[in-house]
């Protein structure tokens, strides 16, 4: 910024205004903002996988305290809601006295705002009517996008492959994978269940589209998170049968039997019928499996 001196010279004023307009068009930020924030208008926050907050591919938050980090994660997970101070205290400092917890919260808010300002994101943590929230216009949070896409898919009677893949692309790993927060446990379980349910839908769609290798890979992902889901095993058996790999059909059925044996149950009638249909009853009888 060029400082204007009195009396103002018309030529100098014109040059200053022209430079300011040029800088704005080129994405050059005002003085005091970090160089990387000049071309990034939103703070990137990722809660799936390892927690990340900062500029994607650039500066990231450096934490003074563990609670400062947890507070940002908590607020980022709250959509656009104003979260009352007392609820934050209850979730983050449940064992502290109210007065001490309130001091801790105000300290964390101060540190968080200072930290954000340092990387060029001043004014993101806001307070209104007793509650704190993150400016929704200036943050991009993966879990918010995941929830948004999932709500949209539930309103569509026949979602396509691309819609589902786009939603699942936001989930780079378990919710807050490297952090252990009590308030996050229920959220993590809900995200896990939603993910495996939509992956199961995706695997079935790949099977209908005759993309058997992708059906196999997606069904295996489902089994990794839900090892007793028989529908995923049935998708694997049908895919391998279409690929002409009957030996793998046998292996998958055996694998299902072994998993269910831990629960002292047998594969369902539907799974047994599919196996019989694929392999032929004579071969199954020969193997002594029924």
Can you give the helix content as a percent range?
55-70%
Please mark out the parts with pLDDT under 50 across 5 or more consecutive residues, or reply none.
Answer: 1-8, 20-39
Q: Rounded to an integer, what's the Rg over CA atoms?
A: 27 Å
Silhouette = elongated
Largest sheet entry = 3 strands, mixed
What proportion strand? Answer: 5-15%
Mean pLDDT, nearest integer? 85
The number of E-state strands comes to 6
In the sheet with the most strands, the strands line up as: 2-1-6
SSE series:
HEEHEHHEEEHHHHHHHH
Secondary-structure content class: mainly alpha
Number of helices: 12
The rounded distance between the terminal residues' Cα atoms is 84 Å
Oligomer: single chain
Structure overview:
It is a single chain. This protein has 12 helices and 6 strands. It has helices spanning 10-25, 66-76, 85-92, 98-118, 142-155, 161-169, 185-208, 212-225, 230-242, 246-261, 269-279, 281-287; strands at 43-46, 52-54, 83-84, 125-128, 131-134, 139-141. A 3-stranded mixed sheet has the order 2-1-6. Strands 3-5-4 form a 3-stranded antiparallel sheet. A hairpin with a 2-residue loop joins strand 4 (125-128) and strand 5 (131-134). Helix 10 packs antiparallel against helix 11 (269-279). It is elongated and about 85 Å long.
